């Protein structure tokens, strides 16, 4: 499936999320270069001001944005599977995209003032591509987790080889917020 075609197919069928996840995962596993496919699918919505999108799912740009985030979520779910390798070129592109995204979100008031879709998208991007610690600090990840309502994407995030080792550090930041720390532990499957 061509990248833009995939994004618009997903956008058109957002109400069928369960089926879409299965289709996207299959398509990514069959893609010649899934990492490049995912980055092309996200396009450049991350550089556009979030206020330029409305909450109306019928809006073409909003649906495309939600579709891109769903593709990122599916990529995180398979990012540790055999045969999925992130080449240096795609990792650098993801880093560049993440930096642009981060700067825009900070310019709009910071991670605490961002909308859920934006925060989810950036959290999924750094979880799937393993952006370095010098770009995103633990506090940034804490803020993104808080803003993104991670319960909806926790299954994907639990499969992230990059994010899961950081969760104990995230919980340490929440040391004075015991209830929030316990909630994160349950969300990420660290407590049974």
Word description of this protein:
- The protein has 192 residues and is an all-alpha fold.
- The protein has ten helices and no strands.
- It has helices at 3-12, 17-30, 34-42, 60-78, 88-107, 116-129, 138-148, 154-157, 167-173, 178-187.
- The model has no long low-confidence stretch (mean pLDDT 82).
Short summary:
With 192 residues, this protein is mainly alpha-helical. The chain contains 10 helices and no strands. The protein is 61% helix and 0% strand.
Q: Tally the helices: what do you get? A: 10
Rough shape? globular
Overall helicity: 55-70%
SSE ordering = HHHHHHHHHH
Distance between the termini: 40 Å
How many strands appear in the DSSP assignment? 0
User: Ranges with pLDDT <50 over ≥5 residues?
Assistant: none
**Beta-strand residue percentage:** under 5%
Round the Cα radius of gyration to an integer and report it.
Answer: 16 Å
Largest sheet: none
What class do helices, strands and sheet pairing give? Answer: mainly alpha
Determine the mean pLDDT: 82
């Amino acid at each position: 499936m061509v990248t833009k075609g995939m994004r618009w197919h997903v956008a058109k069928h957002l109400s069928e999320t369960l089926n879409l996840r299965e289709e996207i995962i299959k398509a990514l596993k069959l893609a010649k270069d899934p990492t490049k496919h995912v980055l092309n699918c996200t396009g450049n919505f991350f550089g556009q001001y979030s206020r330029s999108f409305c909450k109306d799912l019928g809006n073409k740009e909003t649906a495309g944005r939600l579709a891109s985030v769903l593709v990122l979520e599916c990529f995180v779910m398979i990012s540790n599977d055999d045969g999925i390798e992130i080449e240096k070129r795609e990792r650098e592109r993801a880093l560049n995209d993440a930096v642009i995204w981060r700067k825009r979100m900070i310019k709009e008031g910071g991670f605490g003032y961002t909308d859920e879709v934006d925060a989810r998208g950036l959290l999924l991007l750094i979880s799937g591509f393993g952006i370095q610690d010098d770009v995103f600090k633990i506090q940034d990840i804490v803020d993104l987790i808080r803003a993104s309502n991670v319960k909806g994407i926790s299954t994907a995030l639990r499969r992230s080889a990059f994010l899961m080792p950081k969760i104990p550090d995230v919980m340490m930041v929440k040391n004075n917020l015991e209830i929030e720390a316990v909630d994160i532990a349950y969300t990420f499957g660290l407590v049974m």
